[in-house]
Structures are given as structure tokens and as C-alpha cells.
Amino acid sequence: MKILALLILLSSLFSGISARTSAINDSTSNSNSSVQHTITPHYQAFTKDFSYLADLCTNISGGIKTGSNIMGMANFMAGFNTEYAGLWKGGQFYINAAATHGKSLSGEFTGDYQVVSNIDAGDHIYLHELWYRHSISGFEVTIGLQDMNAEFVNSENGSHFINSSFGVPSVISGNIPAPIFPLTAPGISGKLSISESVILKAAIWDGCPTAFDRNRNNLKWHLKRDDGTLLIAEIETVSRLMKLPGNFKAGSYYHSGFAELATETGNKTEVFKNNYGFYFLADQTFWRANAGEQELAVFMQLAISPASVNSQHLYTGGGLNYSGFSRKQASDAIGLAFACAMFNQSNIGHETTIEVYYKKCFGEHLFIQPDLQYVINPVGTSGLLSNALVGILRCGLIL
Question: What burial letters (b/e) apply to 331-359, b meaning 16+ CB within 10 Å?
């Protein structure tokens, strides 16, 4: 509750700033009503958002043990546009402060590798993103603390699901220390719009985000040679297959390798060297009705990395979403998807999760999402576990 109170206080502070700036702008526009040119409203320089997600989880059967748990995540996000503030063109500052709470559902109950909830992080209050972006003539460059999944390896249709692999395929999240939720890292990224339908993206990050035990609030960024370097490049194309929107992404990543300090001996141990992989994502709408209010869309994920370096070397996933079936709330949706992580170890084989959800919205700011996941062969622990059935009720507040 202290976390929520702090974030709401910050939101109120920014509201006050925006309101005062808006009032100044209104009085200025009234006193200059005879001026013909348009005055940019300065209050648009500040933007703010607040969200809170809560997962009421139950491991119904299988896994490590049955039982229930509650996890949550609060985010306060604020932006500042330099052009709207009358400073310089193309500049944008952004901050995302986060707070997570609750015991790990996967770590304590399910025992799966892919992590059934994408807000599973433990108890932390930290800075998730802090960056400056400059845009000019179809090119953007961003420098600072960034979440890789905000610009890379993301599927619009996959984001409706709760399992973590539908955000970032487990070949990437499980094999390299990528700057994704909950720990991000400093980096530089660039995006070039070749045309309206083709976008090129590339980025470089510190190779290992500093762990929470040495970086409690993600404010101490230790750039060390032993962390290595992470490089990623992606091409995105936008299509109109059968006059319906589609999005396709292909990319590759390379990590130079990193070493960590062994607690027992105090010596540095090389975890891996020269790790890399490739991925492909597709989102495609293939049916619309009622002037676009009803929609059926599919997505597909594929990621691969060398089996000589990674035991989890192949991932495939996909699913579909159906929205607009409710006359009262067009954003209500249902979905079905699967995520399969494949291993080159004969005693493991694969871990496959099947997920189904129903999302019910109450206006623009509140929703609930009952979710059911069946985890076949959970392999997140060293022991053999039976298939797990997990129920999650996600509640969301967006302001």
C-alpha cells in the first residue's frame, strides 16, 4: 500500500504541473486571440500514466505443490516532449518507475521454466526505464536505461497473454541476461523508417543487468568488461494481406559472453562465450466484420540458438485472439495459444504450455482477465514434476 500511495502521489504532482501549465497556456491564448498562427499548447509537453496489475494465482494440480498466491505490479510512467515545451524539436524524455510484490508462482508452486506470469518478479521498488530519445527525418536514437522488449522481439497479439514466453521467447530470456522485465540495462538503440512499411532497428546494451542484490533500485549500473556486450538487430515489415493489417519481424542477437563471481571460491567463472540466435514473429488479422469492430487475429513465434552453447535451443509459439464480440464493450477478447520450449537434453525434451483467457473490460480504465494454463512437463527445477494446471485471475487498473 505504501508503494501505491507513493506512485499515486507522484501522479498527482504531475497532474498539478500539467494543470498549472494548461491554465497559463489558456490565459496566453486568450490574450493573443488576434494572432493568426497556431500556438502549441505547452501542457502537452508533460504526459503521465499509471497502471496496476494484480494476479490472483492458484496452482490447481501438479508442479512443485498446489496452493495460491497473489502477485502485483505498479508502474508510474511520465514523459516530457521538448518540442511541445517550446525548447527543441524531436526530443523526448521518459521515465518508468515500477514496484512489484508477491512470491514467485513459478518458483514456489508451478516449477515451470517459461514462467506462467509475466509480472512474476518478487518484491522490488525500482527504476525500469529512464531514457532520452531524439527523432529527425524518420530516424530515432534512444540512449539510457531501456527495456529491450519495448522495441524488439514483441508481438502485438502475443501481448494479450499472460505467460512470459509470449512476451520474449524463452530461447532469449532463458539463455542470455537480456535487459527485459524486471531488470533492464543502459544501452543505445536506433530506428530507421525506410518507408511506411519497412523499419530497421538495432541496439547495443551492457551485457548483464546488475542484479537486485547489488542494485536494489536499479540505480547502480556497473559497466564491466566481464559483463560482455549484447547486440540486436531487427527488420519489421507492415503488410496488407487480403486488405487486412499484418506485421512481420525478423531479427538476430549476439552476446559476446560474460563471467560471474563464484561465491564459494571467489573466482570468476565464464558462463558462456559468443552466444547468438535468430527469431521470427508474425501478427496477422485474417477476418473482420461489423466495420472492423469484430476481429480474429493470429500470431506466430520462432526462435533458435546453437545447441552447442544452449541446452534450450529452440522455441515455437503461436495463437489467436478474437475481439469485438461484445456489443457493450468492443475491447472484450478471448484467446488461445501455446508456447513450446525445446531442449537438446534427452531426459527433458520439451516444456509446452497451453493458455486460454477471457478479458472483460469495464470502460477504459478497468479490466479482469480469467486465465487458465496447462503446463506439460514443467522443467524449471532439477526434479521431475507432473504436469501443472494453473488458474490466474488478472485485475488491471489503467489511469
Answer: ebbebebbbbbbbeeeebebbbbbbebeb
Instruction: Output the nine-digit C-alpha cell for 86.
Output: 517550446
CATH of the domain at 11: 2.40.160.180
Grouping H, G, I as helix, E, B as strand and the rest as coil, residue 371 is strand
Instruction: Tell me the CA end-to-end span of the chain in Å, nearest whole number.
Output: 17
Helix (H, G, I), strand (E, B) or coil at 34: coil
In order of 165, 281, 299, 359, 372, the CA distances from 335 in angstroms are 15, 18, 11, 9, 11
- What DSSP element (H or E) covers 274? strand 268-289
CA distance 20 to 158: 40
Tell which phi-psi region holds residue 193, choosing left (phi > 0), alpha (psi between -120 and 50) or beta: beta
Distance CA 283, CA 166 (A): 12
pTM given for the model = 0.86
The answer as to whether 36 is a domain residue is no
Q: Give the whole-angstrom CA distance, residue 370 versus residue 297.
A: 20
Structural domain including 125 reads 2-15+45-398
Query: With contact defined as beta carbons under 8 Å apart, do 350 and 340 qualify?
Result: yes
Please say whether the beta carbons of 255 and 276 come within 8 A. yes
Does residue 37 belong to any structural domain of this protein?
Answer: no
Could you list the pLDDT tens digit for every one of the 399 residues in the chain?
444 444 444 444 444 434 433 433 343 334 333 333 344 455 589 999 999 999 999 999 999 999 999 999 999 999 999 999 999 999 999 999 999 999 999 999 999 999 999 999 999 999 999 999 999 999 999 999 999 999 999 999 999 999 999 999 999 999 999 999 999 999 999 999 999 999 999 999 999 998 898 899 999 887 878 889 999 999 999 998 888 999 999 999 999 998 877 666 767 788 888 999 999 999 999 999 877 789 999 999 999 999 999 999 999 999 999 998 887 888 899 999 999 999 998 778 999 999 999 999 999 999 999 999 999 999 999 888 999 999 999 999 999
The answer to whether position 27 is within a domain reads: no
Answer whether residue 34 is part of any domain. Answer: no
Residue tagged 521454466 (cell numbers): 113
